[in-house]
Design brief:
- This protein has 472 residues and is of the alpha+beta class.
- The chain folds into three domains: 164 residues, Beta-Lactamase (2-Layer Sandwich); 87 residues, Signal transduction histidine kinase, dimerisation/phosphotransfer (DHp) domain (Helix Hairpins), CATH 1.10.287.130; 156 residues, Histidine kinase-like ATPase, C-terminal domain (Heat Shock Protein 90), CATH 3.30.565.10.
- The chain contains ten helices and twelve strands.
- Helix 1 runs antiparallel to helix 4 and helix 7 packs parallel to helix 8.
- It is rod-shaped.
- The chain starts with a helix and ends with a helix.
- The model has no long low-confidence stretch (mean pLDDT 89).
- The structure holds adenosine-5'-diphosphate and magnesium ion.
Length: 472
């Protein structure tokens, strides 16, 4: 399909134009050449005729000269008689002597002689076929009043000239055909050098579209087509990564959902079947059920937020808030868990009072996410330090941990949705993506610094609230 179309376009756009130009050139050249040759023949003949006319006038002025004899000499000794036949015509319009030496033919047709007699300058020209041969003839009426001579006539055959013209026309047509042949050869090479890679690119792109994400193109040219190959390969790689991430996400989310569900189911069944269960065990079971339910609901919330974020439906409920109070609250919330996991959670208290303009629940959610990560990706004995400071018009919240850290390869990616640098710990891989987006919606930024094996520092920058903002 593509082959046909590109070839067709080439045929219309370039080949036809070249063909028309070449044909016009051949036609113009042929006519020009013919005109040029015929003109030179006519010019040469007229030059001889002019010279003879002058000679005749000179003779006529000299009374000692025998004019009829001189005329005979002039015709018989005509210097170009091998190419041009010179004739002398008498007053009856009959050729009485010719340079060819043959007996003059009385029945000879002489249209140019007739024309000369009718014309005002006494010159008549004729070009055409006479007894099967193309000739050029010109008649000059005699400028001298003579009893015998009425005109000189010059005749030359055009067959040699016509052969010459024919030769050149055939030559130029052959050159034209050679050019067309060359154009067709080089263009078909050029077209196939585009069309063939394009159809193989199309073939691979189709395979990728049909789900064969492992299909790759081999780059054969280092040009625009090569670039196209690179782009398509890159696209396929990205698709492959997204596909892998999606699969991993589904499996990790399923796992995340299954673990608390198993605990809830297990405890539920135990409580139901054991009628004599003591109060303490039952309370413990109930606590697990509540905790796991909470985990499930927060996970579902996270997923819902993520889906709202993707569709652009995440609404912000903005207002003035004391960010220090929120941090303290979240730290307090995690103190129990940190202690349990033998992780030191330190809050660098401050006397300052920082007000930001934002959605209190969303910002809490971000803090929960980041502190949760810090604890989750730390081991027993590690420390998590939360602090706040002012920098110009912004506040900086830093959450530093001495946990497992993130490798330099993963670091630029961890903010991407579904990206998990570490699959040994539970998580959906969307926490940082959501947090980053929420902070961006507050006009701030979220950055990560990490050294693998040493720990991670997350810095949240938020603009300080300014009175102006509230005046609207
Ligand atoms: N404090 C941290 N220490 C080490 N790795 C971290 C930390 N915070 C985030 N990460 C890495 O970044 C990834 C993405 O984090 P996140 O989006 O919160 O996903 P999740 O917590 O569900 O795995 C994590 O899977 C983890 O590999
Ligand atoms: Mg997380």
């Amino acid at each position: 399909m593509a082959v046909k179309k590109i070839t067709q376009r080439w045929l219309y756009n370039s080949f036809l134009v070249i063909l028309v130009i070449l044909c016009s050139f051949v036609v113009v050249f042929s006519f020009g050449l013919r005109g040029y040759y015929y003109n030179s023949v006519s010019h040469a003949v007229k030059q001889r005729a002019g010279a003879n006319e002058t000679l005749l006038l000179t003779y006529s002025q000299d009374s000692t000269i025998d004019l009829p004899l001189q005329i005979r000499h002039m015709v018989e000794d005509f210097s170009d008689k091998d190419k041009i036949e010179m004739m002398a015509i008498d007053n009856q319009g009959r050729v009485f002597i010719t340079s060819s030496g043959f007996e003059p033919d009385a029945s000879l047709e002489m249209p140019d002689y007739k024309l000369a007699r009718e014309s005002s300058n006494g010159i008549g020209e004729f070009r055409g076929n006479v007894s099967g041969e193309e000739i050029y003839a010109v008649t000059y009426l005699s400028p001298v009043n003579s009893d015998e001579l009425s005109a000189f006539r010059y005749v030359t055959s055009l067959s040699k000239v016509n052969h010459q013209i024919m030769f050149f026309i055939i030559l130029i047509i052959s050159i034209g055909i050679a050019i067309i042949f060359f154009v067709i050869m080089s263009s078909s090479y050029f077209i196939s050098s585009i069309v063939n890679p394009v159809s193989s690119i199309g073939e691979t792109a189709r395979r990728i579209a049909q789900g064969d994400l492992k299909a790759r193109l081999t780059k054969t040219h280092d040009d625009e087509l090569g670039d196209l190959c690179d782009i398509i390969n890159h696209m396929a790689e990205e698709l492959q990564t997204t596909e892998n991430m999606k699969n991993e996400f589904i499996s990790s989310v399923s796992h995340e959902l299954r673990t608390p569900l198993a605990a809830i189911k297990g405890w539920g069944e135990t409580i139901l079947s054991d009628k004599e269960m003591d109060r303490e065990t039952m309370d413990k079971g109930m606590q697990v059920i509540i905790k796991e339910t909470q985990r499930l609901s927060s996970m579902v919330e996270e997923l819902l937020d993520f889906s709202r974020l993707q569709s652009g439906n995440l609404k912000m409920n903005m207002g003035k808030l004391d960010i220090v109070a929120e941090i303290e609250d979240v730290v307090l919330m995690y103190t129990e868990r940190a202690k349990r996991e033998n992780i030191q959670l330190i809050w660098n208290e401050t006397d300052s009072f920082f007000i930001v303009y934002g959605d209190v629940n969303r910002l809490r959610q971000v803090l929960v996410n980041i502190i949760d990560n810090a604890i989750k990706y730390s081991d027993s004995g590690d420390t998590v330090t939360v602090s706040i400071a002012q920098q110009d018009e912004n506040i900086l919240i830093t959450i530093r941990d001495t946990g497992i850290g993130i490798s330099a390869v993963d670091l630029p990616q961890v903010k991407n949705k579904f990206y998990k640098a570490n699959s040994t710990r539970r998580g959906s891989g969307i926490g940082l993506a959501v947090a980053d987006e929420i902070i961006a919606m507050h006009g701030g930024s979220l950055s990560l610094d990490s050294i693998q094996g040493e720990g991670t520092t997350v810095t949240i920058t938020l603009p300080l609230y300014k009175e102006k903002k509230n005046q609207q």
